[in-house]
Amino acid sequence: MKKILLVVAPLALSVLGVSAQGKPVLVVKAVTAASGVEMPYDLKQMQGQLVAELRVMVGKEVEVVAEKPAEQRGAVYTLECEVKEWRAGNAAKRVLVGLGSGREASDIRYRVTTGSGKEVFEHVDTVRTNFYSQGAGSTGTLSHPIAQKIADRIKDARLR
Predict the structure, then answer these.
(1) What's the CATH code of the domain at 33?
(2) pLDDT by residue (tens digit) across 111-126?
């Protein structure tokens, strides 16, 4: 019995190690803005915020990083995100009308490609700030809802 355990335990641990190495990597590129779109946010910092948010949302399925790893351990995917349009919102409308009207919003185009450049998916979505959000910091309040949209699409795509 002890001999079997001595053989099975290392084998089981090696299988766990191999499966951890096989987790796909998602490289989040810097967020860009379409020509003519002006935003009051630092888009390079938004990249870091998206990485942090996506690690929480899809970190069990995908390793989320900001830079391509030096050594490739498995499938590598790239996320590109572009802000096509940005609307600042209207504080007076939020107070007088309520019900989510007047919130800050943006139209974003994002896509995930394989290491060879093959497109996995591409979507264009309108993203609005969460209810009761206050504009804060150099990335505003859009990073979280943008990450939620992207995380849902990544889960649907089942990256391997």
Answers:
(1) 3.40.50.10610
(2) 999 988 999 999 999 8
